[in-house]
Amino acid sequence: MFRLLGPVEFDAGGQTVVIGSVKQRTLLAVLLLRAGEPVRLEELIAELWGPAAPRSAIANLRTYVSVLRASAGEQRIVTTTHGYQFVVRAGELDAIVFADSVRDARAAVTAGDFEQADSLLTTALGLWRGAAAQDTEPRSWLAGMIAELEEQRLSAVSDYVDVKLALRQHVAVVPWLRDLVSQHPEHDRLCEQLRLAVSRCCA
């Protein structure tokens, strides 16, 4: 499994590989979020260094790719005409597993199967180990993608609360919701869900 929903890491040879260099973690995050499509060298350089890229940027980038290939597998990073492409299979990237589980949970809600939705959302949210790609140095594109992942997380959290309320498990979610609202006071849906859960506890 390649993991972006928290510190950037992956499994290889039955062990978790922790990437020591922040530039390598940032590179891997960009490649994983664009898995299956080629990423041009200039795009990668812009994400790693911004407008102040050193003259050695291309050489450094190739070194980072070599290090990642050595730990993740040579076949994982394909050299393309103008850059690199990362190869992942179904079920290997936590961000995709998360999105698929949330989609299936919403379908279960539509079908009225709240128990199944509860199980799927519990699994999906359990993939998060912290802020998305929290140990990278995100610039323009990566920063936007991280923000999008965090929005998807909050949306899934709200779905999860709706499911818990539908299952009449409002008492269990109140402490958790209070913590979330304190972190995201601008999130109207979470605030309204907290008010609803508290009112049901008092009824």
Your description of this structure?
This protein is mainly alpha-helical. The protein has one domain (1-167): Orthogonal Bundle (Arc Repressor Mutant, subunit A), CATH 1.10.10.10. The protein contains eight helices and six strands. Strands 1-2-3 form a three-stranded antiparallel sheet, with no helix packed on it. The chain has a three-stranded antiparallel sheet with strand order 4-6-5. α5 packs antiparallel against α6 (140-166), α6 (140-166) runs parallel beside α8 (188-202) and α7 packs antiparallel against α8. The chain is elongated and about 65 Å long. The termini are far apart.
Task: List the SSEs and their pairings.
Blueprint: E1 2-3, E2 9-12, E3 15-18, H1 22-33, E4 39-40, H2 41-49, H3 57-72, E5 77-79, E6 83-86, H4 94-110, H5 114-126, H6 140-166, H7 170-183, H8 188-202
Antiparallel strand pairs: 1-2, 2-3, 4-6, 5-6
Helix pairs in contact: 1-3, 4-5, 4-6, 5-6, 6-8, 7-8
Summary?
The chain has 203 residues and is mainly alpha-helical. It is built from 8 helices and 6 strands; from the N terminus they run βββαβααββααααα.
What is the percent of helical residues?
55-70%
For the secondary structure, the number of strands is 6
For the biggest sheet, the summary is: 3 strands, antiparallel
Radius of gyration, in angstroms, nearest whole number: 20 Å
**Which secondary-structure class do the elements indicate?**
mainly alpha
Tell me the number of structural domains: 1
CATH homologous superfamily name?
Answer: Winged helix-like DNA-binding domain superfamily/Winged helix DNA-binding domain
CATH class: Mainly Alpha
Low-confidence stretches: none
Calculate the mean pLDDT score and round it.
94
Give the distance, in angstroms, between the N- and C-terminal Cα atoms. Answer: 45 Å
| CATH topology (fold) name | Arc Repressor Mutant, subunit A
Strand content: 5-15%
What is the string of SSEs from the N terminus onward? EEEHEHHEEHHHHH
CATH structural architecture: Orthogonal Bundle
* Principal-axis shape: elongated
Query: How is the largest sheet built, in terms of strand order?
Result: 1-2-3
Helical element count? 8
